[in-house]
Amino acid sequence: MLGFQSCNKDSGKSSPDKNYFDLKGYFKADSIRLTKLNPLINKTVVHNKVSETKKVHIPNWGTELSLFTGSDINKPAWKTSYQVQETNNFLIYKAKDPQLKTRDIIIKREGSKIKWILIFNHTKNILYETVEKLSYFPDSLYLIQKTQRVRLLGTDTYSIKGSFN
Questions:
Q1: Which residues 6+ apart lie within 8 Å of 42 measured at CB?
Q2: 16 found inside a domain
């Protein structure tokens, strides 16, 4: 793990206009920080058990982390849609409505520093079902695991793992 500190000083508290942790703001700030740092990433992409690994510089961290940003739960219509549990080190959100895509968000903190974020997404309708597990460890690792079952086409599994060198 690299010794870089996140320039985002968010302690996990929501801002006055946000009901929950500002996931979108956190990943936007970290994308800007990572773009400036331009770290070398050991990136592994796996699609249906076929794997490819390369060392790369990510040209657009906003795009790379877009699934994390897209899991933001701060929509006005959802202001009472998540059960919140907070301890000294953890912030946990659980969807009350099974129709919400983002089911769980677990944030591990030490003081004001984010140690890791886990996000569980689930979408199901008559045509397909998608399950996503998103893991983010600042300056260490990000992992996107996705399984999609399409009614007439079968199941696809995807995994993207980026390790910071």
A1: 53, 54, 55, 162, 163, 164, 165
A2: no
